[in-house]
Write a structure and sequence with these properties.
Layout lengths: L2 E4 L2 E4 L2 E3 L12 H13 L4 E3 L8 H10 L7 E6 L1 E2 L8 E2 L3 H15 L4 E6 L8 H13 L3 E7 L3 H10 L4 E5 L7 H4 L1 H7 L2 E5 L30 H21 L3 H11 L1 H4 L12 H9 L7 H7 L12
Parallel strand pairs: 3-4, 4-5, 5-8, 8-9, 9-10, 10-11
Antiparallel strand pairs: 1-2, 6-7
């Protein structure tokens, strides 16, 4: 496994998004999820991503149990800042200093660890200015509870304001060949400040794998209501998945590997380190995703894939 550096933190070149092991993507299985995390570590995928809201804390507990006895192998990332305690329809993006400290202590307890390697603000706060939140997060670093700070789904202006308070190691954003907003919204500031990009959903929430039957998604799977998956937009977007599959078939690899390889191929163009964190709860998909590290796309293949974002129908949420 290759490694990459995010603002001083050395991580595996590919991470593992653990969210779906607890919520949002249908049926979950604790034992299968733990086995997937163990297999990830065996393969050198040691950069694990979770958050306090995934399964209302369930995911942090799961990840913590899975890495027990192997903590030294792991670069552990978690997030805070989205308060769902009043229901999903009344979410609040919070960042008050007392809330920051309380959230960190709760995450440390659920994870069963003494320190979090990378602590993200999950979304820009509504309750205070971002400088106040980052100041409180900097206090966690000073107290030895957190090693590096990150932001999730931010823009260049907020990144610069946050960085002026304390260095930011990484920005986590949705980024794939059909979700390219970070290129125009935040990449310039990241490049100027030396901040790495951690793309989540590099597989388009599974749409780009050519293995997803949209009609079979259950009510517990949020994609069944997602604008890009439903109705006419979902049908129109099938042409994007078909194009990825065509490239993959000609190359003799899986469509998922083409989608991830495309993300890696953007690092030089954007001028920032890129460490994708494809999410899965099954070993076979994990192994397929890791194999994408050995896939290099040609200029002609990139020429087919690059324009696909212009064809996307439907918003991300």
């Amino acid at each position: 496994m290759r490694t990459s550096t995010l603002g001083g933190l050395t991580v595996s070149a590919q991470g593992l998004g653990c969210m779906g092991m607890s919520e949002f993507y249908g049926h979950t299985d604790w034992d299968e999820s733990v086995a997937t995390i163990h297999r990830a570590l065996d393969l050198g995928v040691t950069f694990l991503d979770t958050a306090d809201i995934y399964g209302a804390g369930h995911n942090e507990v799961l990840v913590g149990r899975a890495i027990a006895g192997r903590r030294d192998e792991v670069q552990l990332a978690t997030k805070f800042g989205i308060d769902r305690s009043f229901g999903d329809g009344r979410r609040v993006r919070r960042g008050e200093p007392a809330y920051v400290k309380r959230s960190c202590e709760a995450s440390l307890l659920r994870l069963g660890v003494d320190v979090i390697d990378l602590y993200y603000l999950h979304r820009p706060p509504e309750t205070v200015e971002i400088e106040e939140t980052i100041g409180a997060m900097a206090g966690l670093v000073a107290a030895g509870k957190v090693r590096y700070l990150g932001l999730s789904e931010t823009d260049g202006d907020l990144l610069r304001r946050a960085y002026a308070v304390h260095p930011i190691a990484a920005v986590q954003s949705e980024y794939s060949l059909w979700s390219r907003e970070p290129e125009t919204v935040v990449a310039g500031a990241m490049r100027d400040l030396g901040v790495g990009l951690v793309p989540y959903s590099p597989l388009g929430r599974g749409f780009l794998t050519a293995t997803l039957d949209v009609t079979a998604l259950g009510e517990r799977d949020f994609r069944s209501h997602n604008p890009r998956f439903a109705g006419e937009a979902g049908a129109a977007n099938q042409a994007i998945a078909d194009a990825v599959r065509s490239v993959a078939e000609a190359k003799g690899v899986a469509p998922a590997q083409v989608a991830i390889a495309w993300v890696y191929a953007q690092a030089d163009r954007l001028g920032v380190p890129i460490v994708p964190i494809p999410g899965t709860k099954r070993v076979k998909w994990l192994e397929q995703n890791v194999a994408a590290l050995d896939v290099t796309l040609t200029a002609s293949e990139l020429a087919i894939l690059d324009p696909l974002a212009d064809q996307v129908a439907g918003a991300r949420y």
